[in-house]
Prior knowledge:
Layout: E1 2-5, E2 8-19, E3 23-29, E4 56-60, E5 75-79, E6 87-93, E7 96-104, E8 110-113, E9 125-135, H1 145-149, E10 154-158, E11 164-176, E12 179-189, E13 204-207, E14 213-214, E15 225-232, E16 243-248, E17 260-266, E18 270-276, E19 300-305, E20 311-317, E21 321-325, H2 326-333, E22 339-348, E23 352-353, E24 357-362
Antiparallel strand pairs: 1-2, 2-3, 4-5, 5-14, 6-7, 6-15, 8-9, 8-13, 9-12, 10-11, 10-13, 11-12, 15-16, 17-18, 18-21, 19-20, 19-22, 22-23, 22-24
Amino acid sequence: MTVTGAEGPAAFRLTAxxxxxxxxxxxxxxxxxxxxxxxxxxxxxxDGPAGTGKPAVAILAxxxxxxxxxxxxxxxxxxxxxxxxxxxxxxxxxGIGDEAIGTLERPSLMGRTLSxxxxxxxxxxxxxxxxxxxxxxxxLAGQPETAVLGGANALALAHPDGGWEVxxxxxAVLVAARTYALSRLIRGQRGTEHLTGPVPPGAxxxxxxxxxxxxxxxxxxxxxxxxxxxxxxxxxAADPAVAEVEATADLTALTPFAPVHARARRxxxxxxxxxxxxxxxxxxxxxxxxxxxxxxxxxxRLTIRAAxxxxxxxxxxxxxxHLYPAAExxxxxxxxxxxxHLSIAQVSAVAGPGHALDAVLVL
Length: 363
């Protein structure tokens, strides 16, 4: 039967009819089922290029993240919302077929910054700076200071001029969906103190505690451009839903850290210069007498500089100390100096001179 109501006619099936003069009827609607509207989630941090649904991908050239050798030259992070994992990482290139080199069972903890980060000082707790971060997926949590000092809550931050700074955070406060305010920062960790300059909003961040895929450690990979494809493992490498990026492995993972604590004193023979070396591998222990070398041999490059920074003399030494003879000082400057401007870098047999310590030492 058809019943006309305020919204127009509607069809019903009569299922029961009772009574005499006053009758009671039961009926059920014959209208087609109406699907409940699916609620839209809040906007996604990433939806792939042009809304294609491809995962967000980052290729990271980082210092060693552990003491394990051989050291990966680069890492791959990938995340998507929704996650259709596991995801496969394929490597290929011109004239090279796609080879599966790793799998991500879970999305990497990655996203982008929503606020600017000013320049900071390395290795110290920054109790005033904060960083707003939006993740593609996943969650962050604060950690006690002791856990952070033990390596927890480390993330890589892409700098506008290239390179990844490793910083840590103690506090993470959820302020919106997948958006966190990170504070109590430690900047310039793992030999990245040269990358503590300002970073504008929109920089990619990758939490190093999350899943990552190592992209190889062989020296034959250095300097070679590769194509990396990342997508659901149920797809083929060439599927349109697979993300594709190009990257070339560099020497970041093999570059020595800058020395620290340079000092100098004047003696009868000249100026005695000394410093303390650091290591890329196994340098986190506080109770060891001396950290491991991490290189094939111990070598340093010491550069004596003029007041304007121009190099005057370059020497190499096999120990973290050097005597700058008085005769050479007079030859370089014309007279004894009240202060000495110098740079010191540890030298790798593979990567060459590492990041330098630049200091002005009062004599």
